[in-house]
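Supplementary Methods S3. Complex input for the calcium ion-bound model.
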Amino acid sequence: MFNAYGQVIAHNNMRKKSPSEVNFSKDEIKEIISGLKKQDWITLPKNRAGRDGGAGNYIEEDVFGVKENNEERPDLGTYELKTHREHSDSLNTLKSIEPGIRDRMGLITPLVKNFGFPYGPQCNKRSKGKECMHKHYNPNDRCYPDGELSLNGVDMCGECVSPPNPRGFYTRNNKKEKRIEMHFDSDRIKMESSGISEWVEALIERHGSIDKLGLDSNFYWPYERVKERLIKKLAKMVWIKYQENEDKTKFKVTDAYFYEDFDIEKFVNALDTSELFIELRAHGTRNHGTAFRMFEKYFPNCYNTSYLIN
Ligand SMILES: [Ca+2]
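Predicted complex, serialized as structure tokens:
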């Protein structure tokens, strides 16, 4: 008992490094992963067992000794580490990138003003009964001022993707100009979706009619800028796929690859196959960042070169 406890403490006290302090070579990574594969089923230490993502955290923090971070550089120095649980369908936020020629062009705040829907009275945390950072607005004990508009959680994909965004927002890959454009078309609004008819009524009240509503022509992301932002972290990736037992106390590595040569065209094409989404995260005058989100299992499709790690 004492020994087991001592071991956990040792794990927690191991000084974990940040990505800027490490640079694992390809051979070092290969060796570490081959070692994991040879062990077959690996029992997780007590502090990781039974937790969502426990095996992923174990690999990153306890095996590679890199602490969880939000640094712009790859976790392992040159290679970004991604651990993927088999059959998982998680959607991962890769990066926040604002539309427009420059970052933070201030396109989102006017968009919220023009297209926003009334924000709910309480933020996610509080609606789950937890404490939050918001000052509370009386009456009604709201987290946000009365009348606050929001586009939080509005996500969009390519124009042919089904189901489309019910509010009529979509993206288009303009291959000639090499940019992702964001568009709005009132004919694409799905009135039967929940909350949509109330929203349309509010828009009509605000603008008189929705027929001529459109977006600023600066609503686009040049491929080059998206690439520049992504490759800081994702130019090269180590991909470790694992299986876990039912109670998440053990895992085994089933597959591992190096992926290299990130391909921006493949990445942006994923908008048209509903593998990639762009999600707005803004309300009132606050913009929490326009997020590029991808289903984790599709990450490897964005690279031109792969090497199996045995
Ligand atoms: Ca990572």
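The radius of gyration is 23 Å. The longest strand covers residues 250-262.
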